[in-house]
Amino acid sequence: MTGCKTSYLIKLVQKSLPFRLFLNRALIYIKSKRGDNLENLISLSYKELPPKGLLTDFVKCFWWADNPTDITEEFTILPDGCFGVIFQFHGSQLQTVFLKGIWTKPFEIIIPPNSTFYAIRFKPLAAESILLFRINEIVDQNMELEEFFWEINALNFNDLNRFSDLLTAKILSVYEANGKVDERKKKLFDILFETKGSLSVDNISKSLFWSDRQINRYFTHMFGLSLKSYCNILKVYSSYSQIARGDFYPEQDYYDQAHFIKNVRQYTGTNPKKLYANKKDRFIQLAILDKK
What we know:
Blueprint: E1 9-13, E2 25-34, E3 38-49, E4 59-67, E5 73-77, E6 83-90, E7 93-100, E8 107-111, E9 115-122, H1 126-131, E10 142-145, H2 160-178, H3 183-195, H4 201-208, H5 212-223, H6 227-238, H7 240-244, H8 257-268, H9 272-277, H10 284-289
C-alpha cells in the first residue's frame, strides 16, 4: 500500500512467539522435554476475550498467556489466517513488542520462564485500516516494533480485561482518525470468513464485481500471498476442530480425502492422524479445541 506509515517498523527478526492462543479460560497440559529427555507435564494458563462492536471487523480476539515456571516451554502453532501484535513481559517489565505476520506453515513457540504475553489477534483487514502498513514482507516471520508502539509502555494494566479495554480505546481512536474502510474489501473478508475459504476465487470475484486479477494483486501487495493460498489456509484451519475430535474425513469442500490430507500436510507439515496423535503435547490449537 503506497504511502503507508511505517514509523513503527524497526527490523525483521526470526524469533518465534505465540499468536494463536484461544480459549475462554483453561489449563492446558503440554509435555516438555527436560534434562536427559525426561518428559514432565507442565501447566500454562490462557485466557481470551472477544472484541466488541466495530472491532469485530478488525480483531479476532485479545489474548493472554502466562508461564509462571522457571522452565522455557515450547509448542507448535498452526496457520489460521490472522496476524497479531504481541507484548512480552517479564514480571511487570515490558521486554519486547512483535508484529507476527500471516503464516503458511507451522512454527515453534518459545515462552521464556516467568513471562506473560498480552496480545491482539488481528483479522487481515486491520493491516491497512488500523496498523496503516503492509504485512507482505513478514509472511512466516516476526517484525520487532518499538517499545512505545501505541504507548503500551505508559498504559497501566495487570489483567486481560483492562488490557482489552485500553487497547480497544486505542484501536478505535486510530480507526476514527483514518476514516472509513473500503466497503468492497470489508465484504471480501466477510465472504472469506463466512464460507471458511471454501468459495472459489472466481465466485468471490463475481460476487464482488472485482476481477480475480485485481484481488490477487491486492492480496499479494498487502499480505504477501495469493487469495487462493489464503482460502486454503482458512479451509485447513476450519478442519482443526474435526481433527481434534478424531474425525479424518473432510467436512469442507475437498475433492476427496486424499485432497484433504494433501492440503492439511501442506500447511501443518503432517497428516490429520499425526495431528490428532500429538494434540496433547505439541499442537496447542487442537489441544484447546478438544476441550471445548
